[in-house]
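Hi Y.,

Following your request, here is the sequence exactly as I used it, all 408 residues.
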Amino acid sequence: MRIFTAVRHSTNSSYFYGGLWSSNFYPALQKLGHEIIESQTDLLPSSKFMQIADNFTSQELEVRSQITQKIIDEVKQAHRHSPIDLFLSYFYNSHFDPAGFEEIHKLGIPTVNFYCNSIYQFELVSQISAKVNFSWHAEKLARENYLKVGANPVWVQMGADPDVYHPVENINRQPKACFVGQRYADRDRLLANLITNQIPVDIYGSGWGVTVTPSKNSSKSQEEVKTEYLGRKLQIPGSLNSYAQTAWVFMQNEGAIAGLKRTIRQLNYRSQSRQLDSIIAKSAYGFAESITETFAKYQVILNLSNVWSDGRPSSKLIPHVRLRDFEAPMCRTCYLTGYTDEIAEFYEIGKEIDTYSSPEELVDKTRFYINHPDEAEKLRQAGYQRALRDHTWECRFEQLFKEIQLKA
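Below is the corresponding structure, written out as tokens. Let me know if you'd prefer a different format.
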């Protein structure tokens, strides 16, 4: 098939979102024998306000309109050259005018929009989802969100590329646990609890108390620290204005009294988080230079899978299946993650990976696998074989095409 793609949120691959999904999708599609026609339109101008769900400024709407028309023109040109069989995007509401899908559908091209934050940030793609032919979502429980806006949801989980995520030999495993990821939700609570319970754990990622000097190749520019962009005032995280804006949103959504209480809970939560800094910082090591080599060094690899239900601290915590749930087992790790009914559909719990349902169980199981390397090795090998067999991106795309009844 000829597949037109618009999945990079910037043409500059030095941005995290510039190459994340293309690096996951493209190798698998090419291995399956499909031809990729990649959009050359830069989504970065609209990616800078993709955290906005609606009520765009006139300047934002103009930028989105220009990007939409450029992409439609690219599709039409490619389709005239040789028929396009599928339009695959990763659009937020900010990226593309939902009405633009009508122009693509008139050409007889089916459209699929991928999104992987549908549990706690669905509003950011709700308008796009209602107009695209198929809304590919990674979280099983997100289906109802899509149905409510009249979308056509297709549940296909994420996967991993064994050419990127693979075992690394000749590295001695330390009798310790390891977590790789940014500080978010209750991750600091869970890690601090491990540390205070004498569980040896090393932490990699941002927000853990290690100062990282930006590289001279950093993609940040002066434009990104401006106080206004396209007619919208930008809030500096942690500033008084940002807290005031948060309080206003809570009061609008939940009422004055409930909103004020919610604001106080969020402030208290952040205050409690700061009190954990001294416990956590001693185990933090900055960014992992090589994820595969880092995984190979540790007896146990942890995943702390909770997200905030509405994306803001003090809301309900919800366990969430992530890319890491497939990448880590693909690296042949003893993998321990938060339990969900969904993850149990992809692995045999206790034999291929293991899970925890409370901070106490996380402590107990981490200690067990550190102290029982033979049991850790059994989990490691079985999880690796399962990931190789069932959880590659090729498997996911084959499932997607079957679900939408698209044939080469």
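The chain has two domains: 2-158+393-403, 160-391.

Thanks again,
Q.
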